[in-house]
Amino acid sequence: MSEQEIRVPDLGGADEVEITDILVKAGDKVEAEDAILEVESDKASVELPSPGAGTVKSISVKVGDKVREGDLVGYLDSEGGSASQEPPGSEPEEPAAKSADKEPAEEADDKGADRATDDKETLETVHVPDLGGAENVPVVEILVRPGDTVAVDDPLVSVESDKATMEIPSPYAGTVKSVSVKDGDTVNAGDALLQLSVSGAGGKAADSQKPAEQATEEKPKPTESAAAESGKAPAPERPAAKSSSADAPSQPSQPGTKVHAGPAVRKLAREFGVELGQVRGSGPSRRIVKEDVQAFVKQQLQEGPATGTASSGGGSGIPPVKLPDFSQFGEVERQPMSGLAKATADAMQRSWLNVPHVTQFDQADITEMEAFRKSLKAEAEKRGLKITPMPFLLKALAHALKQYPQFNVSLDMAKQEKIQKHYIHIGIAVDTPAGLVVPVIRNVDQKGIWELTQDAHELAEKARNKKLTREDMSGACTTITSLGGIGGTAFTPIVNAPEVAILGVSKAAMQPMWDGQAFQPRLMLPLSMSYDHRAVNGADAARFTTLLSQLLGDMRQLLL
Prior knowledge:
This protein is of the alpha+beta class. Among the domains are: about 1-80, CATH 2.40.50.100; about 120-200, CATH 2.40.50.100; about 355-560, Chloramphenicol Acetyltransferase (2-Layer Sandwich), CATH 3.30.559. Helix content is about 25%, strand content about 25%. It has 13 helices and 27 strands. It has helices spanning about 95-100, 105-110, 200-210, 210-215, 225-230, 265-270, 290-305, 340-355, 365-375, 375-380, 390-405, 450-465, 540-555, and strands spanning about 1-5, 15-20, 30, 35-40, 45-50, 55-60, 65, 70-80, 120-125, 135-140, 150, 155-160, 165-170, 175-180, 185, 190-200, 355-365, 410, 415-420, 425-430, 430, 435, 440, 480, 500-505, 510-515, 520-530. Strands 17, 20, 23, 24, 25, 26 and 27 form a seven-stranded mixed beta sheet that branches. The chain has a four-stranded antiparallel beta sheet with strand order 1-8-6-3, with no helix packed on it. A four-stranded antiparallel beta sheet has the order 5-4-2-7, with no helix packed on it. Strand 12 and strand 13 form a beta hairpin. Helix 11 (about 390-405) crosses helix 12 (about 450-465) and helix 11 (about 390-405) packs across helix 13. The termini are far apart. Residues about 80-120, about 200-250 and about 305-315 have low confidence and may be disordered.
């Protein structure tokens, strides 16, 4: 045996931490990565692992002590010393701590190192994997097309259940030959998605691909001929060392702790949009393997977002609302939220938490506009349409967006960039029995009143009949939400991020307005425009609603 120092490892940027528990004592036998101490920073509690296998000789700290990275906390009589001190005939055993850092080996595995290089190409069919029990899941986006070259784990198709959206990764590296599905199709586990032309090496990449920890642990055993050439007997097969925590259920990593996962696993997590800190690791020393990420995604598909996310009332560090037992006050009934209701709730809370909202209120005199609209009723009936104020609102809003392009942007805060849009698509909120949906009318600035009336009518019908496609509901620059047919004098609509503005319209009412000589009855339309204060300042918002009011007051200005 040789004496080995036990020192405090990298603390993830924490300067000083407090020892909250000592998990071993002198004389205890430990394996590599077994927990020695438990420390606590201002962010998380962390267990400090043993640097190797052996017997604890002494611990030089006590509960309550403060330690820093590199501080000596004890000594270990390590078993076998270094790899160079191993007796002949035994296979060096590397500590699990080192295997966690063997990213070059994993990268070599990812690139197909040590695999057969057979050049023969085969045609492989990619099937839908296990969807966590979800059935008839719609395909929302095809991410590849015939002729595209893909690597292992590249996303192929995006599907959406009523609880979550996920991308299906490629199990092979190769070239897309044909795609068997299209946007809007519904698929189940086992259905064929597409066909890939896979070379011998690429075909074996998916089959032989192993989690990184297996690649580092399952080393090839020396053959008898190799042993004969080296003059050594073949190393006897030994059982892998077990961590003392192996029998305990693995828990998700706490915020602030280091996550053990290789490059291939991290890539897969990025493609699924999974935060590795929330995944339970099943590998050695709680190392996260691909199967852990896939199991996490299945769980999300089955259960929806985890507790503490926006859907549960939490998010951005805000604790969820604790509900009392309402049955103590009277009779209650629990009803499940529909998929649309959950999606709407998540989107609204996400926007409210991330967008600094300001609402500008104004009103437009639409007396003349209403008279003009009513004069068109006979023509509308001939066309089989019902003309409402909506096409006039769309036309005026499109003109205002051209005059004030700062309202036709989206913000990329990660890259600190503003995305200016040179098209004008406007969403219209439609109230349906299933909930609120927002179909999008495209190129509003290029269409006349009759064409906009037709588009609005068709999209509203599709919304009520649940026939809207993904394309029908995407690409809006801004949104109009109207409560004019119901009532109210004003409200504060929530911006539908990544848009930066939304126009709310309330019920028009006759009001006495002063014309300089006397009060005149005028039909006034309340406008409520919420905007993202990061993209739009208050002065521009006031100018925007003023222009909008002027346009609605005299639609002839659109001809100028």
